[in-house]
Amino acid sequence: MKQRKDWSVLLGAAFLMATSAVGPGFLTQTTVFTQSLGASFGFVILASVLIDLGVQLNIWRIIAVAEKRAPDIANIVLPGLGSLIAVLIVLGGLAFNIGNVAGAGLGLEVLFGITPQTGALLTAAMAIAIFLVKEAGKAMDRFAQLMGLLMIISIVYVAVTSGPPVGEALVRTVAPIKIDFMSIITLVGGTVGGYITFAGGHRLLDAGVKGQTALPQVTSSAASGITVASIIRVFLFLASLGVISQGLAIDAGNPTASVFKLAAGQIGYKLFGVVMFSAAITSVIGSAYTSVTFLRSFHPGIGRNENRIIIGFILLSTLIFVLVGKPVSLLILAGALNGFILPITLGTMLVAAHRKSVVGEYRHPLFLTFCGLLVVLVMAWMSSRVFIEQAHTLFA
Measuring CA to CA, which residue among 29, 23, 53 is closest to residue 41? Predict the structure, then answer.
């Protein structure tokens, strides 16, 4: 029975990470970048998956061995650093969550014809209900798994009906015509940047999966989370590529909905509503939960009232959307900014992995350290290039 419970927790953490990554921004980014890069976007996906694995395998293992949350680990490495990272992550999580709530409202509008604002309020009510039940962690795990499977089935159906050029996609994945650094940073930032990097690791810690003896389970859960997110990304890419290869025009106002409708007609359009709602509400839950775990390092009272603060976080995100709205580019911008934050958070965790004051006698694998350091350097380099390019554009 314990083994079954452990497996449920590991799968729950994997799906929490994956569904937190697969939000409205994830859907929009994949469609927009496929439109601009075509089959060469396969290379961007491959690069981002390899980077994602390097990030998650390092961070989840270090959290498990240290038996501490990321901001507490960072504060040991350098006093005050954890607090700074916590502020950056919570602000990024709030920005994402405004877009997540909006995306869920849009999904319900497609399904039931209600306004996005009404849909956002209903979404908030459903998300809050999960944190009102006695075993909120278990309810969150099960809900993430259900919504994740629903997304996968819907996207695979649309990908098959769009008839994508799979052979060309495979070739361009390893031999791209064009490489776009901004798209790689945005994808990585949107998949394992900011709060998403720590969603599963913190969930495992809260569920008691920690210590060196738990490392095989932690590694398996992290790899499973990346696999689920990658499956969804690949099939969404193929669906978009199938529509583009037919020469069909994608509506710039709502590119992902356009792809689903062009590929599978009215059924596809309704499936877009299902996918958008599923992606958004799970991201609302994942963002709120993980952001609040970062706040726990500020005061013990936050941990004692965690569910209430999570509910407050969801309400704040919803009210900002309903009362103020959001810029169209908010989600893509938040993903890119998370790509800038990633070298700081991962670099800090790698330093912690070799500090006895954090991990005791544990020896972090040199291979993982090397991969993590490579990701830090590559992401820092790409981020600086994108920053310089954007600055030139801004002041030209």
Answer: 29
pLDDT at position 1: 40
The model's confidence at residue 189, banded by pLDDT at 50, 70 and 90, is confident
- Assign 97 a pLDDT band (cuts: 50, 70, 90): confident
Looking at residue 360, what DSSP letter applies?
Answer: T
Distances (CA, A) of 121 to 96, 105, 129, 275, 279: 17, 8, 12, 18, 16
Tokens 């695979």 belong to residue: 156
Q: Which token pair is 272?
A: 């877009």
What is the Cα–Cα distance from 34 to 178, expressed in whole angstroms?
Answer: 12
Q: Report the C-alpha gap between 315 and 298 in whole angstroms.
A: 21
Q: Count helices and strands (H / E) in the chain.
A: 17, 0
CA–CA gap between residue 315 and residue 89 (Å, rounded):
18
- What single DSSP character describes residue 208? T
Burial class (CB in 10 A: 0-12, 13-18, 19+), 147: buried
Helix (H) or strand (E) segment spanning residue 86: helix 81-112
Decide: 127 and 314 in contact? Cβ < 8 Å. yes
pTM to 2 decimals? Answer: 0.87
In whole angstroms, what is the distance from residue 101 CA to residue 122 CA? 10
- Scanning the structure block, which residue is given the tokens 């996207």? 155
Stretch 116-144: mean pLDDT, rounded? 91
The whole-angstrom separation of Cα 296 and Cα 293 is 5
Rounded to whole angstroms, the Cα distance separating 256 from 28 reads 6
